[in-house]
Design a protein that fits this description.
globular, 5-stranded mixed sheet, alpha/beta, 501 residues, disordered C terminus, 6-stranded mixed sheet, 23% strand
Amino acid sequence: MATKARSTKSAAKRPAAAEAVRPTHLEPLTTIAVDEHRGHFGHDHADHDEPPVPAAFRTVERYRGDLVSIVSIIGLLTLRESSPWAILVVSFNDDPTPSPSLASYQQLFTGAGTGTLNMVDYFSDMSHGKLDLSASQVFGPYVLDRPRGDYVGNVYPQPAGKLNRNGVLDLAKATATAAGVNLSAFAGVVVCGTPALDLCGWVGGFAALCDDGSAQPSLLGQEMGHGYGLDHSRLNGSDDDYQDMWDTMSTANAFMASHPTYGAVGPGLNAWNMRLRGWLRESRVLAVPRNLSSDQTVTLRPLHARGLSGNLAIDVGGYLVEFRHRSQWDSGIPRSCILVHRAESNRSYLMTGTSGNADLVAGDRFEIGVPGGAFAQYVNLHVDSIDEVGQQAVVSVHYDPFFMPHIPDLVGGKVFGGIAVDGGGFIVINGKVIKIPPRGPVRELIESVGRLAELDDAGRFDQPTSRQRAVHDIVWSVGGVARDLELVSHTPPRADQIRKR
């Protein structure tokens, strides 16, 4: 939950999930990096599809006899980015005296709990090993010099004499600083209230609030993810947040898995959210060329299993295709599946297949555009098979690049705004061809909208007289479409509860 006003999140109903466990193939980045590149030291990569080995790896070739030296040097070469957080455990001055033990917080947030699906593991796996949070530290418990009644939560501006979310964050940081904590040494700050506080994150602000009840990887992955700049995920065609149930940035409306220690873990991030933060390992993404038609059959490994060899995602026309295996962070999803996402304005959007479901399984298909690529690129993805045991999926991908056909050859006759005069025509929206009748109110509405768009295209949108005439035509056309309808407003929500008895 970001710090803007949001409704309280509640967990969605979901199938019973297997208990999440960390598989052996999720290895530390430094070990994987050596394994992936050690066979290429000093070789010419002209015959390989993957990018050339970085010069840094060639430089350390002389040290290959000493694996410890190699791992240390790789770590220094920014393959892993140290990103420690300061965890401030706080309570209000009228709360019960907090426990002095910080062991449970250290297990959840720091390197002490590595390998247990804690926050260090989460950000390592979701960043394909780029982020290292193992040096995070827990401080406190601190007693804030304010009573609990002063906290008003998500209220802006902050009322006089009260603390909103920003206020309690500032007070906790000031209290820790006064106690000698150098917060500038940390990438971010999590304020964890005991026993209770709030749950939110500051988008791009490297700060989050939680408490003893919400300190779970499923929820913290989103709130700390906000700190790195991630925003809520959505379903294609909707502006509502929390609509991608296979993505961390939609918790708690997502498929979470139970954990014996932490409560809930997962699901993982989708590929586009990883790419938006620069965390997706692009060398493991198969990019389909956008300048020619092609057919490919591709084998995918689970998106977060960077320790397994093979492709982790496919980029086809800007859509990222990923395989999600029902294990570890994704133990709570209903079934292993293929997912397709697009991105727009720092948000990922989950796509649905031709059958209407988003989680594609063997036999399902995702298709967008017109075969051949007329007016918009064409993407056709078919799921051939999913191997649960082997942790791989096979998909067939067809792609046609965009091209602009000669309109008269397509619809015949004189063309106005893409619609043939005295004949039917079509428009293309998001790659979907929509037929337009040769006459009638729908035709009139489309033509009037086209005239408004033409003003914008010609740079005349700021001319009031022309724009007023175009808008008038649109309103008149809408009236024609709705002339035979009786428009009745919906009953306001909760009206039955507030009606006078």
